[in-house]
Amino acid sequence: MTSEQVADRTAVRDGEGSGKEASEGYQRGLGNRQIQMIAIGGAIGTGLFLGAGRAISKAGPSLILAYAIAGLVIFFIMRALGELLMYRPVSGSFSDYAREFLGPFWGYVTGWTYWLFWVVTGIVEVTAAASYVQYWNKSIPQWVSALVFTVILYFANLISVKLFGELEFWFSMVKVTAIIGMILIGIGVLTIGFSDAGDTATVSNLWNDGGFFPHGIGNTLMTLQIVMFAFLAVELVGVTAGEAKDPEKTLPKAINTVPWRIAVFYIGALIIILAVVPWGEFMPGVSPFVAAFQKIGLPAGAGIVNFVVLTAALSSCNSGMYSTGRMLRDLSLNGQGPKFFGQLSKKGLPLRGTTFSAALMLVGVVINYEWPGKAFDYVVSFATISGMWAWIMILVCQLRYRRKADRGELPQSAFRAPGAPWTSLFALAFIFMVIVMMGIDKDARVSLYCAPVWAAIMWVSYIVLKKRNPEAFERKEYSQVS
C-alpha cells in the first residue's frame, strides 16, 4: 500500500468516525426491510432445524434453558457490535475494529479468519443443500446440485447488492413462516387437542420424563457448542454496514430485535415442540420439526421441513459469497491482502473477491463428487471455532473502544451497549467456557485441532507480508474527538 493509499484510507475513516456516512465506494442498496430479514435469517439456520434433534437427545427439555442463556450472550455480542457500528459503520466491521483497537496484526488475522469461516461454511451449506435435493430425487448426483447452487448464487451476487438483499429476504421469510406455522399448529394441538398428538400433548412433558434436566446439568453444558453453532452468522448484519441505507436507524433496529427473535424462533418453538412430542422420542440426526409434524399426523411435514432447511442452507451460502468479497476488499485496501481484490465493479460490487471465494467454494463440488456420504463431516469442524473468533474480537474491541470513549479520546457511540463492560466480560467468559466444552467433547475436539494450524499459517504469512510491506502493518491514526 502506498503512502497516498494510506492517507486516503485514513481520511475515509476519519469521515466515518466523525459521523459522516462513507460507503467506501459501495452502493447503499440494502433497505430496512432487507436488513431486518438478514438479521433474522442470520439467527435461524440449519442448526435449529437439524442440529436441535441431537441436542434434545442429549439435554432433554433443559435445552430450552441453554438456548435462553446463549441467546442472552448473543444479544450482548450484538449490542457490543452495534456500539462499534454506530461509532464507525464500515463494511470491514469487526476486522476493521480489530485493526484500530488491537493493532494491524489482529485486523489481519480477523479478516482472513472470517473470510475462511464463510468459505468453509459455504462449502458445508452447499453440501447440505445438495443432500436435501436427494429427498425428492435420488437420481440427481449430489455434486450436480452443489455445482448448480454455487453458480446460481454466484451470479446473483454479481448483479447487485439489492438482489442479494432480496434473496436473503425471501430465504428468511420461508424460515420464519415455517417456524411460526409450527408454533401455531402446536398451540392448536395443546389447546384444542386435534390430531392423535392431542391425546399426549401437554406442557408437563417439559418435566414429566426425568425432570427438566433428565441427564444432569453437565450434559446440558455439553450441548452449548451445538447451541452456539446454531447462532453463527448472526453477526453478518455488521458486514452490511457499508451498504445499508441510513445505517444509523436500520442497524440499531435490527440488533434490538435479537431478543424477541430468539424468544420466538428458538425458545418458543422448542417449548411447543417438546410439549407436543415427549423429549425421549427425539433422535440424533432427525429434525425436531419433522418429528413434530409426524406426531401431529401431517404427512407433508417432512417435505416442508426439507424445503425449509434447503432454503436455510442456500441462504447461508448466499451470505458467504456476499461477506467474503467484502472481507477480501477490506484486507486489500489495508495492504493486508492482494491489491487485485481492492477494485469494485461499475455496480459497486467487489467482483474479484466474490469470484475468488466462489471458486474456492467449488471445492465443495469436488468433495461431493468424491465423498458424497462424508462430505459434510469433512469440512464442518473449523466453522464453529472460526466463527466464535469474530465474536471474541467484537467484544474485546468494544471494551477497548468504550474505555477510550469514556476517557474522551474518541466520540461516544449513539448506541451504547447496556451493562457494558460487565455484559461484554460475561459474554467473553461464556464463549471461553464453550471452547473448553468443545475440548472435553471428543466429537467436537477436532475443531480445536484446526485452530493452531491456522494460527501458524497466519503468523508466518504475517511475518512475510510485514517484511515485504511494513507500511501496511503500521498503526494508523483513526478518528479522534475534534
TrEMBL record:
It is found in: Cell membrane. Keywords: Amino-acid transport, Cell membrane, Membrane, Transmembrane, Transmembrane helix, Transport. The chain crosses the membrane at residues 37-56, 62-81, 101-123, 143-164, 176-195, 215-237, 258-280, 300-322, 349-369, 375-399, 420-440, 446-465. It is a multi-pass membrane protein. Residues 1-23 have a biased composition (Basic and acidic residues). The keyword Transport applies. Residues 35-469 form the Amino acid permease/ SLC12A domain. GO terms for cellular component: plasma membrane. Residues 1-25 are annotated as: Disordered. One of its GO terms (biological process) is transmembrane transport. The keyword Manganese does not apply. It holds the Pfam family AA_permease. Belongs to the amino acid-polyamine-organocation (APC) superfamily. Amino acid transporter (AAT) (TC 2.A.3.1) family. This is Amino acid permease.
